[in-house]
Design goal:
The protein is mainly alpha-helical and 107 residues long. Helices cover 65% and strands 0% of the residues. It has 6 helices and no strands.
Length: 107
Amino acid sequence: MLWGMVNVMQLVIKLPLLNVTFPQNAATFYTFISDVASFELLPMDYINSKIFMFSSNDTQDLNFDLMGYQTNNIIKNLGSMFVYLIGFFALVLIALFLKLLKDRCET
């Protein structure tokens, strides 16, 4: 039930991207809860500046600018989720390596 609520919240906060007109207080509310719904827990501006060398690529749509998507770069737009995905795949590779190592030690 909790994950269903989070899923609905993630869908609702993206409604301004569908070119629907909202009052200013609703748009402010959407930008406020956007970080909570997308699990932005890491300082991605600092991390991206240390790891990547991105060029400036501005968006053309005002709705995307208001929702925090100032670029068309997918890594910047994914934010913390990019780090979570890389960490997940690293853990899977480590688990597979440990399983392979365990199988070799048993024989």
